[in-house]
Write a structure and sequence with these properties.
The complex is a heterodimer of chains A (420) and B (327). Chain A is an alpha/beta fold. In chain A, 32% of the residues lie in helices and 18% in strands. In chain A, strand 12 and strand 13 form a beta hairpin. Chain A is globular, with a radius of gyration of 20 Å. The radius of gyration of chain B is 24 Å and the shape is elongated. The chains are: A alpha/beta (420), B alpha+beta (327). At the A-B interface, loops of A face helix 5 of B.
């Protein structure tokens, strides 16, 4: 079976707009949360979010947007974009440069792109409002393309002239891990030689606040502790956005191009709770099955796993459910992998989460560290027996595992391994 | 809608000739809508919205087109002639065209239908189109493609004297094709053992294309319809034949209206075979009248032009050529 490697990464995240600053934030446990200005009104009980920095996409008119120095996007491209597409577009350019890909490497029959995002509720809302107010023929002609959940791959596939497989994944917070998993499958099955995996979210008011209705968001007013997965005082997640791109390539391509990969993607597993539309199974049965499948399909023993980037979003039910799943998988063999949730630093990126945290795993495996699980004051007793690391460890994990869980009880686990 | 503009069946409903009072908040929203356009486009839009005077519209339209054109191509619009093409010259794709339309609709308070857009290929088309909309005039007719069946259905001339196989007609002219089959009766005698398409027949074919234009492409006065039984040849000038045309040749014919004032319509015409010039006519003049059902036709035209007055035939079967072309 062909082996698959990660050869390039691009990050636009709340903790950094490139791999170097993201690595530094992860090592030093610097969070990206703030009192988000749009939330600071009396009617909004949620105060903290983790926006990406350096981009101003507040206007509904994309031509008003401003970007960090060095980034400029032609109007012709911009008109089909929403904020998350801009983030993904920037991350894509980083990833292509990072993987040292030329134009011909990006645009050919054997290179595809799988993506995930929740679309742009913000631009969709604006467009619908315009439609109701001014009539159906006054909507921006590219309003749909810019705002529905496929926006990110529509734009990237067209602008980067992708010729291979492309599609989007919609399993909410599991989406971009599904994208990565199926991209891996396409490479292993010989359908493609190279795949871009993209996760992106607007992470603005309209993307985050609808979660307040289900009481999923933290009401904390302290950015330093609002996101605290596995802590007894956790009270919901903190929203974030951004764009992350991973380049996956077959071993043949890695050798042909002579590039040094971050790590190997060993394989993946998925499973569904079959339980509730929005609530994790209390015993974490679905996530447990996903991890079991990932370990079995990659031939990895639980005790081989050194580091787990947990899904834990800082919600009371979700974190406990994952803790039970982790105990069930690792305690029988006495394995004590280091576990952390980097969502304490980044906030929860929804569709972006799987790609972002897989990218973090790739950095950790290559650079030899395991980021700590920040902001834990009092560890939830549900985590008893689990090695939840509160500070960053300077040890190189040989095997790392990333978990995600999405609405409808979709769970994905992916196994990464040191290259070579 | 209280307006003075006559109803216009050819387009969407015409809009206000007397504009609504132009409020300060309208000016603010206009400024916002045109914030990326030139100040003169904004000023013209304000003037148009205040006065309803269509003379201000071209500056608004050009200003809006300019805003959507890539900066390095905008120079072309500075001294824009109306033949500047939207796609080929200005790089405007169909989606950008929609953006332009939406802004024009917003700023000029009009509505434009999708099917009205398909025929807008040049800056001139766009200006003409919007001018017609604003004045409540009938819109220029889109290019129509007519196969032989449709040509025969509308033409007063019929086989075996119809020398068009297919044609396309727009408001700016008509193009057609005729393949010399070799079966034409007159080729048996023109010439002996040497079939050559008579130049007079080639001129006839151009005249027939002009007839088709009058029936399918011309824009008569509102409420009038040109009668197919009242079109006759009156004269031609500057006819030259450049190439001998024989069976197997495909004649590519084109005519363009030069002048049209009831009851006369003057065209220029040309025939090519492939890339070779076959014949030209600097002027072909036809006379026409309006159908009685719609409006009584004016008195038959005096036969002043070229002194070749048509004798009114009793059957409307042909447009006989009286003047012989110099072969």
């Amino acid at each position: 079976m062909p082996r698959v490697f990660i050869t390039g990464l691009g990050f636009i995240t709340s903790i950094g707009n490139d791999a170097v600053s993201v690595t530094q934030s992860l090592r030093e446990l610097r969070h990206g949360l703030e009192l988000y200005p749009p939330f600071q009104t009396p009617e909004i009980p949620v105060k903290v979010a983790a926006p990406v920095r350096g981009f101003n996409t507040a206007s509904t008119d994309a031509e008003d947007w401003t970007f960090p120095a060095g980034i400029s996007i032609k109007r012709e491209l911009l008109r089909g974009m929403s904020p998350h597409v801009v983030y993904a577009w920037c991350a894509m350019q980083q990833a292509i440069a990072d993987a040292k890909l030329g134009e011909a490497d990006v645009s050919n029959d054997a290179t595809g792109l799988y993506a995930a995002s929740g679309g742009s509720p913000y631009l969709m809302g604006h467009m619908l409002e315009r439609m109701h107010k001014l009539g159906v023929m006054r909507c921006s002609p590219l309003g749909i393309v810019a705002s529905i959940s496929g926006a990110v791959q529509f734009n990237l596939v067209a602008h980067f002239k992708i010729k291979g497989s492309s599609c989007g994944f919609a399993s909410a917070c599991a989406s971009s891990s599904h994208a990565l998993g199926f991209a891996y499958d396409d490479l292993v099955l010989g359908r493609q030689k190279r795949m871009f995996v993209v996760g992106a979210e607007d992470g603005n008011m309209d993307a985050i606040l609808p979660f307040a209705g289900m009481r999923a968001l933290s009401l904390s007013t302290d950015p330093a502790t609002a996101s605290r997965p596995f802590d007894t005082g956790r009270d919901g997640f903190v929203g974030t956005g951004g764009g992350v791109v991973l380049v996956l390539e077959t071993e043949d391509e890695v050798l042909r191009r002579g590039v040094t990969p971050y790590c190997e993607v060993m394989g993946w597993g998925q499973s569904s709770d079959g339980h509730n539309v929005a609530i994790s199974h209390p015993e974490g049965l679905g996530l447990r099955a996903a991890m079991t499948n990932a370990l079995r399909s990659t031939g990895t023993a639980p005790e081989a796993i050194d580091y787990i980037n947990a899904h834990a979003t800082s919600t009371p039910i979700g974190d406990a459910s994952e803790a039970r799943a982790l105990r069930a998988i690792f305690q029988p063999s006495g394995a004590r992998p280091a576990i952390s949730s980097t969502k304490a630093l980044t906030g929860h990126g929804l569709s972006l989460a799987g790609a972002m945290e897989s990218g973090f795993c790739a950095l950790a495996v290559r650079d030899g560290f395991m980021p700590g699980s920040a902001h834990i004051n009092q560890l939830d007793p549900e985590c008893e027996g689990l090695n939840i690391i509160r500070t960053t460890l300077s040890q190189q994990p040989k095997f790392a595992l990333n978990n995600v869980s999405g609405f409808g009880g979709a769970n994905v686990s992916i196994v990464f391994k040191q290259a070579r | 809608m209280p307006d003075a503009v006559p109803p216009n069946p050819g387009s969407a409903k015409p809009f206000l000739a007397t504009p609504k009072p132009f409020a300060p908040e309208d000016e603010a929203s206009l400024r916002e809508a045109l914030k990326r356009c030139s100040p003169s486009a904004f000023e013209s839009a304000v003037q148009y919205r205040k006065t309803g005077n269509p003379e201000h519209v071209p500056a608004v339209v050009i200003g809006i087109i300019e805003r959507f054109v890539e900066p390095d191509l905008r120079i072309k619009l500075k001294d824009a002639d109306d033949d500047l093409r939207l796609i080929e010259d200005l790089g405007i794709d169909s989606l950008t065209m929609m953006e332009i339309v939406i802004l024009v609709e917003d700023v000029l308070q009009m509505s434009i239908n999708n099917d009205e857009l398909r025929n807008l290929r040049t800056v001139g088309d766009v200006k003409m189109f919007i001018d017609c909309k604003i004045r409540g005039l009938a819109l220029p007719k889109p290019t129509k493609f007519l196969p032989i069946e449709q040509i025969a259905a509308v033409m007063p001339i019929q086989p075996p004297f119809l020398f068009l196989n297919e044609a396309s007609v727009s408001s700016s002219g008509a193009n057609g094709k005729y393949k010399i089959s070799g079966q034409e009766l007159f080729l048996q005698g023109h010439f002996k053992n040497n079939p050559v398409m008579p130049a007079s027949i080639m001129l006839e074919a151009l005249g027939q294309l002009a007839v088709l234009y009058l029936l399918e492409g011309a824009t008569p006065e509102p409420g009038k319809v040109i009668s197919s039984s009242m079109i006759y040849f009156t004269g031609c000038e500057g006819v030259r034949a450049h190439r001998v045309c024989r069976p197997g040749d495909i004649l590519t014919l084109s005519i363009k209206p030069k002048r049209m004032k009831m009851p006369l319509a003057t065209f220029e015409g040309a025939i090519r075979v492939g890339q070779e010039k076959a014949a030209i006519a600097e002027e072909i003049t036809l006379t026409f009248g309006y159908a009685e059902a719609v409006v009584p036709p004016p008195a038959p035209p005096a036969a002043e032009v070229n002194g070749t007055a048509p004798t009114k035939p009793t059957t409307p079967s042909a447009t006989p050529l009286r003047a012989a072309a110099s072969a």
